[in-house]
């Protein structure tokens, strides 16, 4: 479900504030040292192309640098797969290159793999890649000072000190199991480590994992051990924070900001109820196709917009129970992560399904937010799942993507980017001075001729490059809205930008994660997935490039 912004005041919140000492500077200078102070109420506050890409057919590429001449992000993919092996499931580390390896300088996104992934990387480079002062000289953690000798002890140090917060996309075990198993090594004296997510995600983690039954309550809520603190994010961003392009973003760690949008990941018979902060079975007295009385209040569902629930003004008792219970969408997340210094961004998706088969299509909102960033040149990379090859039938996706659906989703994004180009181009044309005559030859046109000329014009054919100035929000012509807003995205060649220069997603790198491993003697599934993705991208004239990340190599964006 989309998180109802008008109900956010009903939820308990915690926030962390940053107490800064030292200076923020380039990587070779001492950077900000921050500590998190937990509060019991209030509000949560707060490229382009990689230098190195890896995986099958790995390619070294020159990045399109920022003004400072350096990439903005370093990303380490600890877990690139989606199971069934438990030691390679989803987990990423993200750092701003404007920050040194200092306490709180890294944010983890998902934690299916956490300590195990860090230990594995360190073992691959220790003891050969460390100098006399204890600094890493090679590998993803190059430049990090390691205070201990063993990979295990140094991994514990990285988790305790260097990782400032953990962002969770959704509460499935392959995204949170490392967090549960690893949390006991945190030290209470250093303060609780923030775990930030949408309220529905934290509700599941709190009530079904750190609940003193499945696992000890290690949080600082309900009398827990106080090793973790929950940070409930506002879906779509908290507009009370930030200005300009950073509006709605909140602090993720030193040097990085984040904003979270919800996406759908299959369906189940459990739905999050924001007023109670709990998940309830669909078809119970709380959720059903009709309105029910519940504790002297009713909860109604607006059939025109399944993303919002609100107290009902006129509750009714249904005459009969539904024959079959409704299914509810499983909520996952897409994190926009922004480098505070340069304004450049990446997107990291949790598990998601295609809008074309979803009960509650929500990917379009992510693409609407991403398109202006691609148009402006500030979005450098997307990390998204592709669990299966195209051999799988849609009925067996179970809330995941395969190459044909990844390409279809990126076609929606490409269409929105082209729509912005067309709109800016049309806006520039409107501002050009005219002589008052109807055509460039100087021949006046009659009103009827003007009408015919206007009806024949096709703004989607104009591919002129916009100026380098700022982008204004303008309404897209209806022809463009029809072209890019349709759910019919199955035809690979049904695009209006085949001759565009550059192609709409040129300069965007798409890193594929959450690939389901075959665990057989056949070729690795990522090889087939990558071939299919590249074929779809070529057919659809997207312009982006696809890569499979290698945990032993850092990604620079």
TrEMBL record:
Q: Which domain of life is it from?
A: Eukaryota
Q: Which GO terms describe its molecular function?
A: 3',5'-cyclic-AMP phosphodiesterase activity; 3',5'-cyclic-GMP phosphodiesterase activity
The GO annotation for biological process reads: cAMP catabolic process; negative regulation of glucose mediated signaling pathway
Q: Where is this region: Disordered?
A: 424-477
Transmembrane regions listed in the UniProt entry: none
Q: Which Pfam families match?
A: PDEase_II
Q: Which InterPro entries match?
A: Pdiesterase2 (IPR000396), RibonucZ/Hydroxyglut_hydro (IPR036866)
Q: Where is this chain compositionally biased, Polar residues type?
A: 433-443
- Protein name in the entry: 3',5'-cyclic-nucleotide phosphodiesterase
